[in-house]
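Dear support,

Our group has been running a series of protein-ligand predictions, and this particular one with zinc ion is the one our PI (initials K.S.) wants archived with full inputs and outputs. We had some confusion internally about which version of the output was final, so please treat the block below as the authoritative record. The input we submitted was:
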Amino acid sequence: MADKLHTSLHEVIGHASGQINQGIGQPKETLKNYASTLEEARADLVGLYYLPSEKLVEMKISPNAKGIGKAAFDGYIRNGLLTQLTRLNLGDDVEESHMRNRQLVAAWAFEKGAKDNVIEKVVKDSKTYFVVRDYNKLRVLFGELLREIQRIKSEGDFEAGKALVETYGVKVDQEIHKEVLARNSKFKSAPYSGFVNPVLVAEKDAEGNIIDVKVTQPGNFTEQMLDYAKRYTTLPDVN
Ligand SMILES: [Zn+2]
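Confirmed final output from the archive:
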């Protein structure tokens, strides 16, 4: 539930929020190859910041604030610092934008919260764990990073954006990576999963008014991707 809510907030109030200052170009021009990672980080941070909010419960979007917030924070830190490494071969850098963003956010929060023990690195039976010790302080840190990344986007501050991504989002701790691959080796589930989306088909009356929308299911993933390629390749990339 926390994960689904986080994704929803990421898409709806994350990507849809924030403004670029007057006279500043689009992120693709100002932040160049770092634009996508920083935009994903901004959207994730909006979601993380608002997840523990009572307002979501009041609006009947979330069943509770505390439990959902804790589950989301635990899962996010664990994934950003450990789990997502199952997707990489040993020695590889993190390349994909969403993955760079998740490591950036988690590693930045771990480092900035170290003096207050916000996230504690625990090694038990030669296994590494990242345990969130202070959810309120972690939320404040997420807010601070969100403010900085929004500033970078709004002002088109390439150097600051580059420094954040390169410092926290790209290089992998080789010892941790080895450990994660070894711990994961007994699990056979695929490291990536894809989705076959429903296709909405409008039904019209004789005058062409839409009278109903039917939810249909395409045959398989390949068919859907080929269909998307045929119909949407003229669009700029938006995700
Ligand atoms: Zn996104």
